[in-house]
């Protein structure tokens, strides 16, 4: 963690709100992630054990050697393939529109990067969204 993210400079701490958004405590030292946001090292470590995005802007936070974005060094029961699929899924979900998400899925399909884990994630999300829309329609029709 210490090598992966640079320390925030005193200038960066002074020019930004020096409050960690995770614990709401003032930062006298902090780590700076790719998007430029600052966090206590222990808060960031705890966050990255569960997420791979910035807690403020949801940007993916670590670049791998091959240029893809992922959390490096994360340990646990998830395999690398599952983590990689999760990163792609989050990129799709965070698309600004349904058309943009569809283009990302099409692009992955063209590059033959749609594996079964990613397809399952997309299918579950689509099903949940569909159920949510059906529930809204039922409520609308009820009233």
TrEMBL record:
Annotated membrane topology: Multi-pass membrane protein
Catalysed reaction, written as an equation: S-ubiquitinyl-[E2 ubiquitin-conjugating enzyme]-L-cysteine + [acceptor protein]-L-lysine = [E2 ubiquitin-conjugating enzyme]-L-cysteine + N(6)-ubiquitinyl-[acceptor protein]-L-lysine
Gene Ontology cellular component list: endoplasmic reticulum membrane
Keywords: Endoplasmic reticulum, Membrane, Metal-binding, Transferase, Transmembrane, Transmembrane helix, Ubl conjugation pathway, Zinc, Zinc-finger
EC numbers: 2.3.2.27
Keyword Endoplasmic reticulum: yes
Name the record gives this protein: RING-type E3 ubiquitin transferase
């Amino acid at each position: 963690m210490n090598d992966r993210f640079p320390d925030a400079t005193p200038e960066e701490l002074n020019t930004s709100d020096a409050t960690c958004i995770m614990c709401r405590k003032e930062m006298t030292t902090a780590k700076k992630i790719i998007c430029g946001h600052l966090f206590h090292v222990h808060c960031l470590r705890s966050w990255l054990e569960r997420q791979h995005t910035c807690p403020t802007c949801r940007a993916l936070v670590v670049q791998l050697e091959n240029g893809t974005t992922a959390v490096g060094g994360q340990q646990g029961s998830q395999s690398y393939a599952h983590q990689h699929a999760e990163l792609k899924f989050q990129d799709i979900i965070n698309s600004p529109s349904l058309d943009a998400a569809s283009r990302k899925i099409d692009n992955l399909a063209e590059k033959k990067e749609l594996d079964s884990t990613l397809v399952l994630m997309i299918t579950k999300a689509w099903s949940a969204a569909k159920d949510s829309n059906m529930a809204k329609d039922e409520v609308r029709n009820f009233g």
